[in-house]
């Protein structure tokens, strides 16, 4: 497995989100692991939550109108764009810092919708990742207490090795 | 952090034990991560349990004599030697397979005594590891159920990024 991956260049899936830990994971991956000269591909994956598909009552009993749900969805897309743009800039920056000469880091971007935990594991499998890199969190404190962390889930369920970077 | 590590060669701590998962973790590390040409150092760490320092009653009420505790300790040392020797052979083998030419992978061996969980985290810190690589287990089923897995502990407590390889 290892030898083949090394010869073809490795496919490194980096799960990015809004948090600092994911930025740090990407920075570590680019600075210490991924090598453009070796033909590696860095795949940036951002998973945004599914948009609300039906009107729901909020705490005060009001119905969310379609405009509100559309606005939430639009906001979620804007966040995705911002996160991905920042991550791509980091990839460009580190490619230059490494002094790789003519080699340029191959970067792919994927934005998926759904539960981050299951989507990341599914994509790692589907995209043939040799390694999954992520920060150690990925949910806020309360959601993490309820669901367990995204990284814990991926450690148990991803089909490839998982690298966890902490802040 | 990443840039410096890349320039100097990375220090990769691999926790090895008797299990297949640790062999697979080392193989993955050598085949996909560590690069002799880049000046990387692979540090093999085996942690063996502390020898019994006083006589204890076994289940049937007999005292372990000093000879028995000495024999247990001797056996533990033999296991350590066997694991480390196997790991070193893998390092030599993969160095050749990679066709690194004149570069030879720098390999250091450390055998420590104590609780694997705390010793691995302590050594990662003390040895200035850029990355800790390990299998996803590291205890048998019952001990893991009681203590949690070694890898879970290290993920939470190690001061460097942790890469978990599953079988």
Automatic annotation (TrEMBL), chains A, B:
InterPro entries: Rossmann-like_a/b/a_fold (IPR014729), Universal_stress_UspA (IPR006015), UspA (IPR006016). Pfam families: Usp. Residues 10-166 form the UspA domain. CDD domains: USP_At3g01520-like. Coiled coil: none annotated. It comes from the Eukaryota. Gene3D superfamilies: HUPs. PANTHER family: ADENINE NUCLEOTIDE ALPHA HYDROLASES-LIKE SUPERFAMILY PROTEIN. This is UspA domain-containing protein. It comes from Panicum miliaceum (Proso millet).
């Amino acid at each position: 497995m290892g030898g083949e991956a090394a010869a073809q260049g490795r496919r490194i899936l980096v799960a990015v989100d809004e948090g600092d830990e994911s930025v740090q994971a990407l920075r570590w991956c680019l600075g210490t692991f991924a090598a453009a000269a070796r033909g590696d591909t860095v795949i940036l994956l951002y998973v945004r939550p599914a948009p609300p598909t039906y009107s729901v009552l909020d705490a005060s009993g009001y119905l969310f109108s379609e405009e509100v749900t559309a606005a939430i969805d639009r906001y979620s897309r804007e966040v995705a764009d911002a996160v991905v743009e920042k991550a791509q800039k980091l990839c460009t920056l580190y490619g230059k810092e490494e002094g790789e000469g003519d080699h340029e880091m191959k970067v792919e971007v994927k934005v998926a919708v759904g539960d981050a935990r299951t989507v990341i594991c599914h994509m790692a499998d589907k995209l043939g990742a040799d390694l999954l890199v992520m920060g150690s969190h990925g949910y806020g404190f309360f959601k993490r207490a309820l669901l367990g962390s995204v990284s814990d889930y991926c450690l148990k369920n991803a089909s490839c090795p998982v690298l966890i970077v902490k802040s």
